[in-house]
Design brief:
It is built from no helices and eleven strands. The chain is mostly beta strands. The relative contact order is 0.32.
Length: 128
């Protein structure tokens, strides 16, 4: 199993930047595909971005392409989300998610159902 703890959320003005972190503990971090999701009030949780075990391949929702960057440091057991040019519509609780995979398996997904483990979330609020 893996435990996930997000941090780095906060209040920022439109056009600003934030960097979220997700610290993982438990099983070897490189044995997990990782993703970031977000949930705004009254809306379903939605896919933001994902990354394979090595960091060599990523996927992004169209709404964040060119503005957000996902990365991971397997030596530090940490997942990151760099968010630039933030917009008020980016306001949400951001969750990191993990899916246990086979050794060096190249796989990610955009569905919440695919992921086994979730953090508690961190609030991001973008003011206009």
């Amino acid at each position: 199993q893996v435990q996930l703890v997000e941090s780095g959320g906060g209040l920022v003005q439109a056009g600003g930047s934030l960097r979220l972190s997700c610290a993982a503990s438990g099983r070897t971090f490189s044995m997990y595909a990782m993703g970031w999701f977000r949930q705004a009030p009254g809306k379903e949780r939605e896919f933001v971005t994902s990354i394979i075990w090595s960091g060599g391949s990523t996927d992004y929702a169209d709404s964040v392409k060119g503005r957000f960057t996902i990365s991971r440091d397997n030596a530090k057991n940490t997942l990151y989300l760099q968010m630039n040019s933030l917009k008020p519509e980016d306001t949400a609780v951001y969750y990191c998610a993990a899916r246990s995979i086979g050794s060096r398996e190249i796989a990610t997904a955009t569905s919440t159902r695919w992921y086994n483990y979730w953090g508690q979330g961190t609030q991001v609020t973008v003011s206009s």
